[in-house]
Write a structure and sequence with these properties.
The protein is an alpha+beta fold and 132 residues long. It is 34% helix and 34% strand.
Length: 132
């Protein structure tokens, strides 16, 4: 018989992409997530393209991946996609020692984080198919 199939993690008019184990603190990554949250995809791409933050290139790559997922896996209209969610979570923390004066050592924590981007199709076609 077997186990029941798990329900999908997002709606039929949504697409998502996740960047895991990214070597930056969540606080810095959240600044970029706040910039693109709620924007249309083309405006969010332009925002990241001209951002001076170090992580902007990798976040742009993730956004393009989410758009490709929407196009290939879910057959959504790319022109009507918006960034519905962009949230940052904690991941691994590497602990390292830093030598200090008089033979002491101080712990240095190197943060990893993960970013999840969810795109939602806002076209009328997607909303009518959802209601049916």
């Amino acid at each position: 018989m077997g186990k029941q199939k798990a329900p999908p993690k997002q709606a039929s008019n949504e697409s998502r992409a996740v960047l895991r184990m990214y070597r930056i603190s969540g606080q810095k990554l959240n600044l970029l997530a706040q910039q693109i949250r709620g924007l249309k995809v083309d405006k969010a791409m332009a925002e990241l393209e001209f951002s001076r933050k170090r992580a902007a290139g990798d976040v742009l790559k993730l956004l393009k991946s989410a758009v490709a997922n929407a196009d290939n896996n879910h057959n959504l209209d790319i022109d009507s996609l918006i960034v519905a969610e962009a949230h940052v979570g904690k991941n691994l923390v590497m602990k390292r020692m830093h030598a200090r004066a008089r033979g002491r050592g101080v712990r240095v924590e190197k943060q990893f984080s993960q970013l999840t981007i969810v795109l939602r199709d806002t076209s009328a076609v997607a909303q009518t198919s959802e209601a049916a």
